[in-house]
Amino acid sequence: MKTEIIAVGTELLTPDFQDTNSLFLTAGLNAAGIEVAFKSVVGDDSRDLACALRTAIGRADLILCMGGLGPTEDDRTRETLARVLGKKLLFRKEIAARIRERFRRRGLRAPAANLKQSYVIDGAETLDNPNGTAPGLWLAAGRRRIALLPGPPREIRPMFESHVLPRLERRGGATVLRRVIRLTGLGESAMEMKLKPVYAIVPPGVGVTTLASPGDLSIRLTAPVKGPVEAAEARLDRIVRAIDRALGPYIYSRDGSSLEAVVGGLLRSRGLTIACAESCTGGLIASRITDVPGSSAYFLESAVTYGDRSKTRRLGVPKALIERHGAVSAAVARAMAAGIRRTSGAGLGLAVTGVAGPGGGTASKPVGLVYIALARARGTAVTRSLFFGSREDVKFQSSQKALDLVRKSLTPARGKPL
Amino acid sequence: MKTEIIAVGTELLTPDFQDTNSLFLTAGLNAAGIEVAFKSVVGDDSRDLACALRTAIGRADLILCMGGLGPTEDDRTRETLARVLGKKLLFRKEIAARIRERFRRRGLRAPAANLKQSYVIDGAETLDNPNGTAPGLWLAAGRRRIALLPGPPREIRPMFESHVLPRLERRGGATVLRRVIRLTGLGESAMEMKLKPVYAIVPPGVGVTTLASPGDLSIRLTAPVKGPVEAAEARLDRIVRAIDRALGPYIYSRDGSSLEAVVGGLLRSRGLTIACAESCTGGLIASRITDVPGSSAYFLESAVTYGDRSKTRRLGVPKALIERHGAVSAAVARAMAAGIRRTSGAGLGLAVTGVAGPGGGTASKPVGLVYIALARARGTAVTRSLFFGSREDVKFQSSQKALDLVRKSLTPARGKPL
């Protein structure tokens, strides 16, 4: 079964709109065992929209189309699909009544424009929209199923989970088992080379896809379930073990969890607390750590000591040390880590100092040079790295390496006690 | 002229791959006056890829296709397009020689697989790839132009700027003037209502598109240049003035700049410094401020005082105050802002305390309740907000409101001195 997602809206064809709906829908479809074959984005122009709908009907069995169900002039999805399918639009009194009631509850009269949302394509079922006025539509065109869903995330998400997913599960279709392995600390080509012996033993039907972005890699495995689930699980387990042999030290999660979630889990299970001293990462490490719900159980504070004076005043880094080695140095990183650990009372002190760029680099301390230090009761470790890319890339990769240093520090080496 | 962007790669059909290439290409195309009509994402399967290419050839005049030019089995874009167009693939010795040289420079032998990147579609020009082995391709199919570009961001970006954009500018096509107005502090429906009188005076040809995400709105204006540029500029200026009348207080930038860049500019031009005390935002405000190059000129530090003890120890917030009002209160926000201002020596002290969620809320202090305080020499202002959405939404909207508070504090009210 081929599935296509269509996102409708001229704003989606601009440079900085993050289409989070497609990602959300894809995650839900994948979890239900359905892979996405095509994703299309098209504007509000009705000819372009008709073209995109016809294309999807010609190549996919399940089409999820989102956007263009609103009350404005630009919202044309209902009528365009009706025209493409050669079906009528029917006015439904009870939908109009619900829309009027929704406005009345807020002390308003329903604008006339919203009443166009009461029209339903002949033959379609409506999908209730608890967070908006436009109901979604679910209809069949031959063996195909087409869903029209609203654009706003807070409207589409409950509708997709309550009314679309259950219809898909009823249709059946092959279940697909999935594993996501996440890695950091090596580049894409190095990972590909180490994966060669793994690719050699992948059986037909098992999918292995790699994704790479600066500082973060992932390997996705999929195995269709034909016959007993245990056989498919065993097939995947064999590949995972091979990947572990090839890439073990670089793997930070085997279930898709983020690095900050993994670190949080390790801190929590060992009853340890952490505090950070951030210079070039500017608060990004603390922001990532605190993205994890419940992080207040192990995260005490972060001192974003951007200027040199604050390094001395907050962390006790001697002014003479900064003058002698420079703010971006192993000595200062070490002093920052020990300082935040001491002044916060945390079990672990994590410090980062570096040159994020694009300016600020010199011949001896180029853009991308970053020192990371981790202070624990038993001592302080310091690493030196050189990251490439934009300011945001250097910040992010620094946060990855810093968090991974904590992860490795809390993970017992094979055969050795913690 | 209709333009389509095709992104090739099965990884792009998974839930968490951020396709930043499309956004980058769209920005470049828009700047050259070219709008994007279609964006498609397709996997490595050669039938699906052929289908996507044929669809694009049937509906677009300019097709930018990225991905699938690598050396692996899954890289099939070259041969699939050749088959769709009915053209031959020709081996080019000089490309093979360059690929071998690239590996030799790194002390390696070129893998046999990379030699498939020496094949060029008959009639195509090659586009040099300084950061990778695969050259891009530029070819004509009738009146259409098709570009095949590599997937990795660090390879496609220089190639697009050096070799694709100049070819597009040579083709000519209508220049389009563009303005981006960014706003915060009101919801999408409220903005739409205030824009009604503006929509009424928009002349034909001028495009007005709105984008909304939690905490951030933007209005994009486009005007095609027919005749003298000044006439198109004047048309846009008239609309911008109307938008200013309708939405003035909510507008933070009129040139697409981020809120943190605008705030940075205001601090710099007034010679003021700022320090932050962040609880629920967890370092996000400092991270955003330091995303702006040169921010060390005005940003001193941030104390991410996640736990109550650190609020007392770092900022001098009296323990009794926290016990009496709770960490999430106007009184504590005020004390945090005054505290960071005093201890850092900054001109402005910005503090945020709230309940980010999903847990931690109570009847009197629900998830999304956030207090923001700004301390200046003349006094401290505190605001109370209730944000909706996920943990990340609450964090982001808090950072938006906090930065906007600083912006408004540094922007003279109409007719009044600062």
Structure description:
The structure is a homodimer of 418-residue chains. With 418 residues, chain A is an alpha/beta fold. In chain A, 39% of the residues lie in helices and 24% in strands. The first copy, chain A, has helices at 20-31, 46-59, 77-85, 93-104, 153-171, 188-200, 229-247, 259-269, 284-289, 308-315, 319-325, 330-344, 391-410; strands at 3-8, 38-42, 62-66, 89-91, 119-121, 125-127, 136-141, 144-149, 176-183, 207-213, 216-224, 251-253, 274-278, 299-305, 348-354, 369-376, 379-386. In chain A, the strands form four sheets. Chain A has a six-stranded mixed sheet, sandwiched between helices. Chain A has a five-stranded mixed sheet with strand order 14-13-15-16-17, with helices on both faces. In chain A, helix 8 (259-269) packs parallel to helix 13 (391-410). The longest helix of chain A has 20 residues, at 391-410. The radius of gyration of chain A is 27 Å and the shape is globular. Chain A starts with a strand and ends in an 8-residue tail after the last helix. The mean pLDDT of chain A is 90. Chains A and B meet through helix 1, strand 2, helix 2, strand 10 and helix 9 of A and helix 1, strand 2, helix 2, strand 10 and strand 13 of B.
